[in-house]
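Give me the fold.
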Amino acid sequence: MDYSLEELLAQAWDFSEQDRWKDYEMVTDRLNSPVLLNYYERVTFIYEIKEGTRIDPYTYAGSPKRLFKSNRGFCIDVSAFTAYCLQKGGYKVWERDVNPSWYHLVCFFEDNGKEYILDNGRPDKFLRRGIIPSKEYEMYHDQKNSKKGGTENHKDPVFQLQDNYALTLVYLIENKSRSTSIKTISKDLGGPGRFETNVTKGIKALVESGFITITPYEDAKLSSFTYKINEPLCKRFLKERYNKQQNKYPWVDGVNRGYYSSLK
């Protein structure tokens, strides 16, 4: 029998047995390794954020028990649950904001002297990173990337692109239909309504820097639009600034849809 751990878990863990999967302490005891926890989170949790959490994210967030009961939450909830399980499993853990552009919290942990991030606190239709070495978590380094962008006379759009706009670019690369709207992007990225302004600026920046083209480009509000991507430039962006998605479970329906499907 030649099965991976994830394939065996897909067969063994259907979460239907109430006595095994509804007791908080029993389940969190069982999720005592990063691989087991990563699988559980990616199959079970649904990303959900409420208006206002960006202003005061600690008002009602960060409850691992509430996330366990509802299976719905956002980065603070998932990070808290991750930290609780791994700490019970004997790992050294800590939580930290990894995004200077707008708020995103993840759980760090140490394993055999190496530092990792377990990040499943993003919309499941976009980019749950799963387990990844902390040094490879390269999406959010605006200052470092801007230095690589070169001088005024030798600008490199790959490194000059702001991180929050880079987030939008990854979303557009993954969108097979090449048709979307500002409202849809903002919702799928997990941002509240006011995030639409930032997404609009990002789309315009992507057009100006040559990553995408929109025809016609006359709707200033971009309520809905179709676009084409600059494949060579976008491929270089993914290679230089964004590591390929890890820990995919394609046999689980509804999990990890479409990562890098259009630019392999």
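The CA atoms of residues 184 and 224 lie 9 Å apart.
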